[in-house]
Write a structure and sequence with these properties.
Helix 3 crosses helix 6, helix 7 crosses helix 13 and helix 10 crosses helix 11. Helix content is about 35%, strand content about 20%. The protein is an alpha/beta fold. It folds into 2 domains: about 240 residues, Thiolase/Chalcone synthase (Peroxisomal Thiolase, Chain A, domain 1, 3-Layer(aba) Sandwich), CATH 3.40.47.10; about 150 residues, Peroxisomal Thiolase, Chain A, domain 1, CATH 3.40.47. The protein contains 13 helices and 15 strands. The two termini are about 15 Å apart. It has a 6-stranded mixed β-sheet. A 5-stranded mixed β-sheet has the order 1-7-6-4-5, sandwiched between helices.
Length: about 400
């Protein structure tokens, strides 16, 4: 497992940041953008392209692909597979997603229509923009010949990446999968959410937002990142003496089928029920829930009421977006990784900036303060996306 986010690119640094309740939101230099309400973001400030990446490979890679490849490189190394022949054998595939490729290159393509000119275009332009640029570049960089499953489903891209990788292994199609998601920070995506009045405008107090579940929340803040999880068939992992961190035992996904942006508590809950059924566990077995928790008005209310209905009142829950912002295509994978690591450490991070729980939110145990020490065998992590796409993953302690 490995990832890159505003808190760091390794678990010890990220763990220390969570412990310190470090909010990564900052005021951005956007005062000259006409019509934009928010000035907030949570970009990664210290990531650069590794010097050992061949220039030829980089021609098809924008920032989102470079982060995806780097996260995968670190995860393969963590798994003891970086130089293993199995990576190129066809036994390993990729299930990975992002909302879009590199948005900054889209204007280069659109100038053909706006200016009637192809000047500025090159053979790599589309390869950087295409929605499946992350999984394709991962496969190319490491010579993987298994199946590629692009999961371009907005905020569930990363969680669907893990879920479909799990199913590919479960049903015998692959022995190993790189799973996850990524997103690069871009003003264009901020603008999309801003136009829908979904972004926080607490511009003069960046460290006090986002505020998931709080009665005074005013919207989300966008971040960026990438996270790669190496999934492996259990007997295959045992045979090679792999270190096993946890087991994916349940996955549920469905769609609302009613509105492109309005969340449905009913179908959110059904996705959780599907994950419980797949895992063969009861609601009482789930010790902690990592929420999608975007700090949007309707989203928080629908999600928490669905969680309370399915898992019961008083279930411990928190949102990591209060630290990292909303990393879109990366959030499902980053939150899966951090949920598993928190379970292994018997400590679960609080939701920071949560002072007064919205009375319309579900009857749950919202973790605040300095976090909580808990020892659980199962945790659930949920994500919900535009288009009414819902996902729920259940992880078992090993």
């Amino acid at each position: 497992m490995s990832g890159i986010c505003a808190l760091g690119d390794n678990w010890p640094d990220i763990f220390n940041g969570l412990k310190a309740k470090q909010n990564c939101v900052q005021r951005m230099p956007w005062d000259d953008i006409q019509g934009l309400h928010t000035r907030l973001g949570a970009p990664i400030t210290d990531f650069s392209t590794p010097k050992h990446y061949p220039r030829k490979m980089l021609r098809s890679m924008g920032r989102v692909a470079v982060m995806s490849v780097r996260a995968t490189e670190m995860a393969l190394e963590n798994a003891g597979l970086l130089d293993d022949d199995v990576v190129k054998s066809g036994a390993m595939g990729v299930s990975y997603g992002s909302c879009i490729g590199t948005p900054g290159d889209v204007p280069v393509l659109s100038q053909v229509l706006s200016e009637g000119s192809t000047l500025g275009l090159n053979s790599g332009t589309y390869l950087k923009v295409m929605s499946h640029t992350a999984p394709v570049n991962i496969g190319l960089f490491f010579g993987m010949k298994g199946r590629i499953i692009p999961t371009t489903s907005a905020c569930t891209s990363g969680s669907q990446g893990i879920g479909y990788a799990y199913e590919a292994i479960k049903y015998g199609q692959q022995d190993l999968m790189v799973a996850g998601g990524s997103e690069e920070f871009c003003l264009t995506q901020v603008s999309v959410f801003d136009v829908m009045f979904a972004t926080s405008t607490r511009n003069d107090d960046p460290k006090l937002t986002p505020r998931p579940f709080d009665a005074n929340r005013d919207g989300l803040v966008l971040g960026e990142g990438a996270c790669s999880i190496i999934l492996e068939e259990y007997e295959h992992a045992k045979a090679r003496g792999a270190t096993i961190y946890g087991e994916v035992v349940g996955y549920g996904t469905n769609s609302d089928g009613q509105h492109v942006t309005e969340p449905s508590a009913n179908t959110m809950g059904i996705a959780m029920e599907l994950a419980l059924k797949d895992a063969g566990v009861s609601a009482s077995d789930i010790g902690y829930v990592n929420a999608h928790g975007t700090a949007t008005g309707k989203g928080d209310i629908a999600e928490t009421n669905a969680t309370a209905r399915v898992l019961g009142a008083g279930k411990p829950i928190s949102s990591l977006k209060s630290y990292l912002g909303h990393t879109l295509g990366a959030c499902g994978a980053l939150e899966f990784w951090m949920s598993l690591e928190m379970m292994r450490n018997n400590w679960f991070a609080p939701t920071i900036n949560l002072e007064n729980v919205d009375p319309e939110c579900g009857d749950l145990d919202y973790i605040v303060g300095d976090g909580r020490e808990m020892d659980h065998e199962f945790v659930m992590t949920n994500n919900f996306a535009f288009g009414g796409i819902n996902t729920s993953l259940i992880i078992k302690r090993m």
